[in-house]
Amino acid sequence: MASYRIAVLGDQDSVQGFQALGLSTFPVDTVEQARTTLHQLAKEDVAIIYLTETLAVDLERDIARYKDNLTPAIILIPGKEGPLGIGMSNIKKAVERAVGADIL
Amino acid sequence: MAATVVNPTRMELTRLKGKLKTAQRGHKLLKDKRDELMKQFLDTVREVRQLRTQVEEELMKVHGSFTVASALMSASAMGQALMYPKQSVELEMSFQNVMSVNVPTYHYKTRTEDEGDIFPYGFATTSGELDGAVEALGSVFQSMLKLAQIEKTAQLLAEEIEKTRRRVNALEYVVIPNTQESIRYITMKLDENERSTTTRLMKVKDMLLAQALEEKRAADARSMEDYQARH
Question: I need a labelling partner for B169 at 20 to 30 A (CA). Which of A16, B36, B37, B43 fits?
């Protein structure tokens, strides 16, 4: 069984704690930087990418590209600014996609 | 109306009947698959929503404690404290097959035996808030991993359901009706051919009979003339 890495992508303050847990953290400052890092990580042996919602706002299309792939799983986490509800609305979108209407 | 032009032959009819049977069977199977996927999916989604709410809440608390910690310590001291992780995490990924969809299951391994052994710094130079924050983050991480697993599962299932639903609809509303229409068309055409053949045969028979009668009459007339000439 191959082993994979877990990456955390976000602004410095949001990700620094994860470093202590032994995850690979990638602090980024700009959206452009985040985009290149995201695509770079997707090519590597990274199974899960935790991405802050703050960045996810501008990376929607880039995230959608990996939605149907087995790896990486891009999971949105709230940044230090607080939850923006994007993670939740993504679940809603998935339901709409599967069922055709939001039934939950 | 049949979408495609078909040859009204018996061979084509047999082929189409086979096709219809396969399509109907496939339709039933796919429908069952869709229903089961949907069931799994809805269960997963419910779990995801619950877990996500929980994780988001906990993470916010953690961010809060980090903010407090960073207020009490200088940024550089904090960066230094967290810079070299003591713990490292390796993720092992295996696959579980849910209705022919491969979904990931994650198992993670920490480098050191004790999972709680996460503080990468000595306690002398750091504030107590940081310890609390790191510890809380460590416990949230378990839920985050679970969240990653089921959220990805939900995404993959959603994709598969969409595909399956399209297939079911294509079979139900396009393939099956078209095939039935073609079968009807061929059957009618064949029946029509048969009727026209029967009619033609009857017509030919009539003509042959009329001809035979004519010949017979002519022969009779000749023999009659012969007879009268002799007597």
Answer: B43
CB-CB neighbors (< 8 A) of A9 in chain B: none
DSSP code for A83: -
* A residues 24..53 contacting B (CB < 8 A): 47-48, 50
For B61-72, the pLDDT digits (tens) are 888 888 887 777
Q: Which of A81, A82, A46, A41 is nearest to A59 (CA)?
A: A41
For the full predicted model, state whether its pTM sits above 0.90.
no
Classified by CATH at the fold level, domain A5-99 comes out as Rossmann fold (3.40.50)
Please tell me the distance in Å from A78's CA to the nearest CA on chain B: 6
Q: Is B228 exposed, middle or buried (0-12, 13-18, 19+ CB in 10 A)?
A: exposed
Give SS3 for A76: strand
Q: Is A84 on the interface with B (CB under 8 A)?
A: no
Distance CA B138, CA A18 (A): 8
What is the predicted ipTM? 0.85
Residues 6+ apart with CB under 8 A from B178: B2, B3, B4
